[in-house]
Design goal:
about 220 residues, ten-stranded mixed β-sheet, 4 helices, 12 strands, about 15% helix, globular
């Protein structure tokens, strides 16, 4: 069972949930694994920002989102899924393309380019191209990757942090991200983001963990 929790935050402004599929795995929360519970809840108070090797999201950003889930799968499976960036379109539906810009395992300095459509909100509908660069990484523990997203009439600078913690129920995956940029800062009320960076990962990781040994894909 995978329990999903989302928190949309915006400094000094009423929370409004919108759909802007953005920096790293950012998709509006609509699909939840069977048997899971999901809740978009008001933040109960100040929370310690996620960090990876001491670095976190943009502390001054007005648009931010945080979510977490417990995935019933081994840590190695979850980590491999998360770091196989070219496989993202298979479990994050609005990610239309993903391309590594360097060879080898994902590591500090690795970069990848990916695209996703964005509906009108309030800028015209467009396709965003995001270039994410890994600036911090600790194996099986965390990844931090900022990256600019550009599209027609829209530029966003995003920072995305993921952490992975073994629990009795599997792996707790927590993610936090912030967005800044001219359009975002000018209309933060409309652009507070609710993101589903984790539900698709849960379904894929939990399915993979039940594959027969040596199988590349499960039915």
């Amino acid at each position: 069972m995978s329990d999903v929790h989302h928190t949309g935050l915006r400094t000094g402004m009423r929370t409004t949930l919108a759909i802007i599929p953005l920096v790293v795995g950012l998709l509006a929360a609509t699909a939840v694994p069977a048997g899971a519970t999901a809740g978009a809840t008001a933040d109960p108070g100040p929370r310690t920002p996620l960090t990876c090797r001491g670095a976190g999201v943009d502390p001054d950003a007005r648009v931010r989102h945080r979510a977490e889930i417990v995935i019933d799968a081994p840590l190695r499976t979850v980590w491999n899924l998360q770091t196989d960036v070219e496989g993202r379109p298979s479990w994050q539906a609005p990610v239309t393309t993903a391309e590594r810009l360097d060879p080898g395992p994902l590591r500090r300095g690795s970069a990848f380019r990916w695209t996703t459509p964005v509906p009108p909100n309030p800028t015209p509908a467009t396709s965003l191209e995001i270039t994410s660069t890994v600036e911090q990484l600790r194996h099986h523990t965390c990844v931090r990757r900022p990256g600019p997203a550009t599209g027609e009439g829209l530029h966003i600078d995003g920072v995305h942090v993921w952490t992975f913690t073994k629990t009795p129920g599997g792996v707790r995956v927590t993610t936090e991200e912030t967005h800044t940029g001219p359009q975002v800062d000018a209309d933060a009320e409309a652009r507070t983001v609710q993101v589903d960076s984790v539900s698709g990962a849960a379904r894929t990781a939990e399915g993979a963990s039940r594959c027969p040994a040596g199988a590349r894909r499960c039915p």
